[in-house]
Amino acid sequence: MDTTEELQDFIANGHKTFIPHVSMDNAIFGYHDHQLKILLSQYKAIEGYCLPGGYIKRTETLDQAAKRIVKERTGLDDLYLQQYKTFGDPGRIKWNEMDFEKFSEMAGVKHIKDSWLMDHTISIGYYAITDFSLVTPKSDLSSYCEWFNIDEVPPLLYDHDDMVKESLQALRQQLYYYPIAAKLLPEKFTLTEIHAVYETILGKKLDIRNFPKKLVFLGLIKKLNEKRNIGPHRAPYLYRFDMKKYNKALETGTTLT
Fold it and tell me: Are 35 and 137 within one domain?
């Protein structure tokens, strides 16, 4: 919401467009140059950070809502998205942490406590992954976003600490079955580069002699008759994904271990 009028209308009438009490919180992970980050939001009326989220339009599927919310925060389409869990424990949102007076003043809305927003809410968790160097986080009237290193995430509001932990675990598990890394690399890449993607996201060392060879053996990547000159006596071969096999692997899964 980019204007005060839009925010006011959302608070007053949002339940006509969005499904009440069912939200979506997206763990948007970013990889670039051996670094793994996560995008966090901070609402201007609440002290602390949380995952970027939003409500589901009555006309949307869950996947459509997840794509829209991710695009609103990153400006990017076609990111890899996966639903991993639903969160609905009683008391997961602690309303006493919210400064209603500050929020009402910012939004220009009285009696904010009576809004359709103030009730027990179930959240559907999705994770996404992208190259964070391509993203300029987008803020709006009520909140702003910024990247944090995955090892430097501050304590989060609500149950979002659990969401980050479980979404990262889901990403790491599915990295063994789905070739997610394709969107994090240039069209042509070296074995060292794809090895770095997997090693960084998994958070552990992988045998550089064997792991990329597994991808070649499965036919997910193919060797090109091209090299990249990176220094004296150093010119590794370039590879690219076989997109036909890659797309099939995304649909059916393939074991990389």
Answer: yes
Number of domains in the chain: 2
Query: What confidence tens digit (pLDDT) does each residue in 213-235 have?
Result: 788 888 888 999 998 887 777 78
Q: How far is CA 217 from CA 119, 129, 193, in A?
A: 52, 25, 17
- Residues 157 and 186 reside in one and the same domain: no
Q: pLDDT tens digits for 169-225?
A: 999 998 887 778 888 988 999 999 999 999 999 999 888 778 777 888 888 889 999
CA distance 109 to 103: 8
Task: Answer yes or no: do 129 and 203 share one domain.
Answer: no
Element of type H or E holding 255: none
Specify the residue for token string 């070739």. 179
As a whole number, mean pLDDT of residues 121-146 equals: 90
Torsion angle (degrees, nearest 10) of CA 11, 64, 81, 132: -60
Query: Left if phi > 0, otherwise alpha if psi is -120 to 50, otherwise beta: which for 29?
Result: beta
pLDDT of amino acid 209: 78
Contact 113, 155 (CB under 8 A): no
Q: Do 204 and 157 fall within a single domain?
A: no
CA nearest 27: which of 232, 141, 140, 174? 174
| Residue 26: predicted pLDDT | 97
